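Q: For a teaching session next week I want to show students how multiple molecules come together into a single three-dimensional assembly. I've collected the sequence lines for a complex. Could you give me the predicted structure tokens for the whole thing so I can convert them for display?
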Amino acid sequence: MKLAIIYYSETGQTKELAEVIAEGMRKVGSEVRLFSVDEPLDEAYLSACDGVVFGTPTHMATCAWRMNQWLIEERASIPLAGKLGGCFATAHYAQGGSDSAILSILGMLLVKGMLVYSGGSAHGQPFIHHGPVALDAVGNHYEDAKEMFAIFGQRFAEKAIELFEK
Amino acid sequence: MKLAIIYYSETGQTKELAEVIAEGMRKVGSEVRLFSVDEPLDEAYLSACDGVVFGTPTHMATCAWRMNQWLIEERASIPLAGKLGGCFATAHYAQGGSDSAILSILGMLLVKGMLVYSGGSAHGQPFIHHGPVALDAVGNHYEDAKEMFAIFGQRFAEKAIELFEK
Amino acid sequence: MKLAIIYYSETGQTKELAEVIAEGMRKVGSEVRLFSVDEPLDEAYLSACDGVVFGTPTHMATCAWRMNQWLIEERASIPLAGKLGGCFATAHYAQGGSDSAILSILGMLLVKGMLVYSGGSAHGQPFIHHGPVALDAVGNHYEDAKEMFAIFGQRFAEKAIELFEK
Amino acid sequence: MKLAIIYYSETGQTKELAEVIAEGMRKVGSEVRLFSVDEPLDEAYLSACDGVVFGTPTHMATCAWRMNQWLIEERASIPLAGKLGGCFATAHYAQGGSDSAILSILGMLLVKGMLVYSGGSAHGQPFIHHGPVALDAVGNHYEDAKEMFAIFGQRFAEKAIELFEK
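A: Of course. Below is the structure for the complete assembly, covering every listed component.
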């Protein structure tokens, strides 16, 4: 089971949380590789993946424009159809629009023909409605949220295994 | 392979298009049943389904409130987690917000833990970005769109078969 | 300057925050009345208002269905066109979709012909991207957020005064 | 009364419709200038504007990434706060996500502190829920929609006059 996480990170936070998700994925035996949108992409690896998670900071209550550019133009031809797709976001504030950032990416993943998945409320706590979010300007939320990110990674990998390793 | 379509229909159009999707699903051998949100639900059948498509008219550029009520409260306990989920909408005008109606439902399906799927652009024409749309006040679009709705039904059923009948 | 806040509240939290916003509005001399969607509405007062803020809990990462029902059907005829419109939401978790709840209402307010306004980042801190959010399961966020809600109320009222009392 | 339309256009369609909106705006005496995001911007003119409309093609069911880049980064400092803001989109198909393209921009305009406005259903036909849309692969919709675009321009300008020239 191969999985990938594709992210854009300026401060290192989105990258760090991508790594936390990857740890959760590895717990259930998945191979995971992380790719920044600003680094070279191993297209053969990505093609062989059964699931891809995208990570973005929240900018003006939507995703980083580099994520749009990457998905729409720069890497428009990468084969994502049929794979499991998910998304997470970092933001400063609860009212910062992180959920809109996630949905803006999930909408593009649907157009790619992915199976869009968050786990939602189906696995009990923590509920992860559209995707995990970490807020760095709300108390200790950024650090506290890491456990949820790891659980998201594990759930996502388990779903990919259930769907594609039968 | 059991599938279901759950819809709200006032004028009969959303129901008619649900039937067109069902025809497409049956072409590939699926069993399909349709349920209006205003009629009794066969919960045992729905539980046994591998995929569920939701259909709504577009009201004020979002889905009918009965769909929200049904998903959030009236049928909050129905087991949708892990199933393939999709959505279609009817609307009058191109600028009427049918896509927002579809996304408002897909967002709730994610919270249910469904695998949200439209096929997108992955199968070539017709591209069905977030879900099929029929407009009854734009030339002959409502009638012309029926072919797309049948194709959506077929693609949706084929994906469910691929995922769950391996 | 007359303003109104229309809310749905089950636990009393959304109502309490509506009152906090109202306090902020009154600071700059506005008359404010609050209406639960479950109580009688003074339509004459609402018609005379220059701005209306809507408040909702977050249910399944969108607004309470009673808000949809109220705006789309029950009170479809109330005159909101041309008034300033805003929205706030309560939620449990950062990843709970409060921003999607707010946008689902703002989208309907646009269809009503309102001038949709949050203040955004234009007034400096606190940035309130699409509308204020209070999380009751993230540390002390619910209590801490009250100051932001009062500021939102004040900014909203100041904008209404600027627009309509010239 | 100064107004501006800022657009991204590859094929010339989005530019053409920007010009149609501008004609509608000029009917009621507004001065209007159009700026492509790929051309130099007259910042002094834009600062003096009371309203700005943004136009985008629909790419993967959202706006062109250049619009995100322009609003979030390239022109993050342009003063849009307090101005009337609107959006229109071009797309190929009814199910192509033009409404999501419009909302993705309107969400950013809220963060800028704009008064977001579409007219909605408040002026009778044509209803323009979140913003005007022209579809070039649905019968004659693209040409037929021009009348609606001109009406949108006129309504938008009239609202700006009503708000800012009192």
